[in-house]
Design a protein that fits this description.
binds nicotinamide-adenine-dinucleotide, Dihydrodipicolinate Reductase, domain 2, nine-stranded mixed sheet, alpha/beta, 17 strands, six-stranded parallel sheet, single chain, Rossmann fold
C-alpha cells in the first residue's frame, strides 16, 4: 500500500449520499481511483460510471469484493446491510468507510471493531460531524478542556430535522435508508449527529436513562424509481443532489414505522455534567429561529450556545481563554459558507462538509498509515449512547456505558 500513490476504492450503495457527497469528492482526488461501484439498481451504477468515471459496475456486493481490484470500500447502503458488508470487506483486508449507523447492537459494533483490529485496516465510522475534523469543533473542545465554561453543569439538545418544510416533510422522504424497519434503530439511529455533537464538546459519556416512543405509524414516501429518473437527467457530477428535488416530490408509497420515532435521553457525562437530548421528527413547521433546539451548555464560568445565527458562541468569565470578545460580550464563531444559499440538508458551500473531510482523512490514513480520528472508539461510543438509550427505555433502568473516547478527545 505504501508504494502506491492511488487508493483503489469500491463503493457499495449508489444512493443519495454517494452521488451527492462522496463521489464528487473522490473524483477530484488525485490519490483515488474509483475502481468499482455496486448497487441493486443498474440505472444507479450506470449513472456513477457516466458521471464520476467509475471503472467497473456490479449488482452484487460479494461479487465486487471477490472480483474488483480494490483496496478500500465505502459502505453507503441502507442500515440493515452495514454489519455484514463491513465484516465481509474487512475479512478481505479492505479499508472501510462506514456510513451511520455502525450497528444497532453493541455485540455487532464490537464484532466490527474486533475484525478491523485483527485485519489492521483503517476504518472511518461516520458521522465525522462534530468531530475534531471540523476545525471549529476542535477549537470548541479545546476551549472547554481548558476551562472556558468552568465546571460544566448541564446541557440540552433537540434534534428534529428540518423545520422549514411543511407537514410530513421533516423525515427522509424516500428509499430504503429511511429507518422505518424494526431493526433499523428508527430515527434515533438515523440521527447520531446528536450524541456526536454532545461528545464532540464534552468528551465521553458515562451513563444514559431514556424514554422512547413511536407516535406516527403511517407514512408515505417518494417512489424508489424516481431517484433513477432523476439520475438519468443529471449532467454535472458536482450537482447531483437529489435532496434538491425530492423534498418537493409527491409521496405515493405507504410505509409503516416499525421502530422508534421519538427518544428522550438523559446523559450523564464523564465530566459529571448532565443533559437531555431529544430526537424526534416534527410534522408541521415551527416559527423561524424557534425550532431545532441546538446544543446549549451551561457551566460555572460560562455558557456555550450553538445556532442563533452563528456556528457557536461562548460567553465566559474566563475572558483570558477567549480568542476575542465582541462588543456584546460573546466570542462568536461565524457560520462558514454562504448561508443564504443553504438548502437543507446540502452542506453550505464553504462550510465544513463532513462527507468530504471524512473521505480525505480516510485516504490520508490509508496512504500514510495514520489512525483515523473518527475511528472505532468514536463509532463504538456514539453507537453505545444510542444503544444504551434503547436499552434503558426497554428495561426502565439506567444504562452504564462500557466504552470511552480516547483521552485525546
Ligand atoms: N440521505 C442523507 O442525506 C444521508 C445523510 C447522511 C448519512 N446517510 C446514510 O447513508 C447511507 C445511505 O443513505 P442514502 O440516503 O444514500 O440512501 P439511498 O436509499 O439513497 O441509497 C442507498 C443505496 O444502497 C443500495 N443498496 C441497498 N441494499 C443494497 C445491497 N444489498 N447491495 C447493493 N446496494 C444496495 C440501494 O439500492 C440504494 O441505491 C445510510 O446508511 C444513511 O444512514 C444518509
Amino acid at each position: 500500500m505504501t508504494e502506491q500513490s492511488k487508493v483503489k476504492v469500491g463503493i457499495v450503495g449508489c444512493g443519495v449520499v454517494a452521488t451527492a457527497y462522496y463521489l464528487p469528492c473522490l473524483m477530484e482526488m488525485e490519490t483515488v481511483e474509483i475502481t468499482a461501484v455496486c448497487d441493486l439498481y443498474k440505472a444507479r451504477t450506470e449513472a456513477c460510471v457516466r458521471l464520476f468515471g467509475a471503472k467497473e459496475e456490479y449488482l452484487d456486493y460479494y461479487e465486487m469484493l471477490e472480483k474488483a481490484d480494490i483496496d478500500a470500500v465505502m459502505i453507503l447502503t441502507a442500515p440493515g446491510t452495514h454489519v455484514p458488508f463491513t465484516l465481509a470487506a474487512v475479512e478481505k483486508g479492505k479499508h472501510i468507510l462506514l456510513q451511520k449507523p455502525m450497528a444497532t447492537t453493541m455485540e455487532e459494533a464490537h464484532q466490527i471493531a474486533d475484525a478491523v483490529r485483527e485485519a489492521s485496516v483503517k476504518a472511518i465510522i461516520e458521522p465525522s460531524s462534530s468531530s475534531a475534523l471540523d476545525p471549529d469543533m476542535k477549537q470548541i473542545r479545546s476551549l472547554v478542556k481548558q476551562g472556558v465554561l468552568g465546571d460544566v453543569m448541564w446541557f440540552s439538545l433537540g434534534w428534529t430535522g428540518p423545520t422549514k418544510y411543511g407537514p410530513e416533510l421533516s423525515m427522509n422522504p424516500y428509499g430504503q435508508a429511511a429507518f422505518y424497519n424494526e431493526d433499523s434503530g428508527g430515527f434515533l439511529f438515523d440521527l447520531p449527529y446528536a450524541p456526536a455533537n454532545v461528545v464532540g464538546v464534552l468528551g465521553s459519556c458515562a451513563s444514559v436513562m431514556a424514554h422512547t416512543a413511536t407516535y406516527v405509524k403511517d407514512h408515505k414516501i417518494v417512489a424508489e424509481e424516481k431517484y433513477d429518473e432523476y439520475l438519468k437527467n443529471v449532467t454535472d457530477p458536482h450537482d447531483a443532489n437529489y435532496w434538491d428535488v425530492v423534498l418537493d416530490m409527491p409521496r405515493t408509497v405507504p410505509v409503516k414505522m416499525e421502530a422508534v420515532d421519538n427518544a428522550y435521553s438523559l446523559y450523564v457525562m464523564a465530566d459529571g455534567s448532565q443533559g437531555a437530548c431529544h430526537i424526534g421528527r416534527i410534522y408541521h413547521p415551527t416559527l423561524p429561529g424557534v425550532g431545532g433546539g441546538s446544543l446549549q451548555v451551561f457551566g460555572t464560568e460560562g455558557n456555550l450556545i450553538f445556532g442563533g445565527g452563528y456556528y457557536a458562541s461562548i460567553v465566559s468569565s474566563r475572558k483570558d481563554l477567549l480568542p476575542e470578545v465582541s462588543d456584546d460580550g460573546w466570542y462568536h464563531i461565524p457560520q462558514r459558507g454562504d448561508v443564504s444559499k443553504a438548502k437543507f440538508p446540502k452542506p453550505t458551500p464553504g462550510a465544513f462538509n463532513y462527507y468530504h473531510e471524512s473521505s480525505k482523512h480516510w485516504i490520508d490514513c490509508i496512504l500514510n498509515d495514520k489512525e483515523p480520528v473518527v475511528g472505532l472508539e468514536w463509532g463504538l461510543h456514539i453507537t453505545e449512547m444510542m444503544y444504551g438509550a434503547l436499552e434503558s427505555s426497554r428495561t426502565g433502568k439506567r444504562y452504564e456505558m462500557t466504552t470511552r473516547l480516547p483521552e485525546s478527545m
